[in-house]
Amino acid sequence: MFPLKDNIPTRRFPVLTVALIVANALMFFFFQEATLSFGGAAIDEQRVVEFGAIPYEISHPSERCEFGGGDQVLCGSEPGDRGNAPETAPMPVTVLTSMFMHGGILHLVGNMLFLWIFGNNIEDSMGRLRFIAFYLLGGVIALLAQTAIAPDSVVPTIGASGAVAAVLGGYALLYPRARVITLVFIIFFITVIELPALLILGGWFLLQLFYGSADLAQPLAGGEGGVAYFAHIGGFIFGLIIIKLFANRVHEDYEIERRVPVY
């Protein structure tokens, strides 16, 4: 299922939602130096290690990690003890930069699609300063949730998924009866139908719980990278719990049909 748009019009143009989408795209194509091809997108792995958030550095704040070539990350208590290997950026910096980096073009497009559809209404439900604070704090909490599950992992965590998950959790609580036009694939059958937002978001969250539990039961050999399901779970729960503290301009009449187009 791919959501296309919801049925709640915004009362003002979602400046920050658009700005976040642009920032993520610029980071991917220029900062990460992504190059597109028929096989997907190739990114600068060294940049991922230097500016991605490494759980080991968060749980061991006195220690640093370095790029070991290829997809190897080397961590230790003495920065620079492996010659000229480039070190990671300071941990507080990587917590922020990791939220704007992505592992591939589908990773980027998927996150930005969900941010555009659901983020514009969350931005509209609060002041813009509140929205950016909510978004960034959601990303931080999501990262901490993933770190709590795998504190010794040296695999860089990147992506806007945790922050976007906070937006999804907030949306599920504020607008549970909203409707979302959704593209549905069933083997070779493709159709567009309108589904309850709570069904889409609730189903997405249950999938994260299922796959996250499966990861705990059968972790990948060697702790290699994969999807940070617990970042998604942590972000979504944060959004559910905290949204009412931020949202002071909620669309109380969002179920009333309007004639203006939904963007």
Write down the secondary-structure element order: EHEEHHEEHHHHEEHH
Poorly predicted runs of 5 or more residues? none
Q: What proportion of the residues form beta strands (DSSP E)?
A: 5-15%
Rg from C-alpha positions? 19 Å
Q: So what's the overall shape?
A: globular
Tally of distinct domains:
1
CATH topology: Rhomboid-like fold
Helical percent range?
Answer: 40-55%
**CATH class designation:** Mainly Alpha
- The CATH superfamily is identified as Rhomboid-like
Secondary structure tally: strands: 7
The main sheet orders its strands as: 1-6-7
Structural class: alpha+beta
Furnish the topology, listing elements before pairings.
Layout: E1 2-6, H1 15-31, E2 35-37, E3 40-42, H2 45-51, H3 55-59, E4 64-67, E5 73-76, H4 91-97, H5 105-124, H6 128-149, H7 161-174, E6 179-186, E7 189-196, H8 197-217, H9 229-246
Antiparallel strand pairs: 1-6, 2-3, 4-5, 6-7
Protein described:
This protein has one domain (2-246): Rhomboid-like fold (Up-down Bundle), CATH 1.20.1540. It is of the alpha+beta class. The chain is globular. The mean pLDDT is 87. It contains nine helices and seven strands, in the order βαββααββααααββαα. The strands form three sheets. A three-stranded antiparallel beta sheet has the order 1-6-7. It has a two-stranded antiparallel sheet with strand order 2-3. Strands 4-5 form a two-stranded antiparallel ribbon.
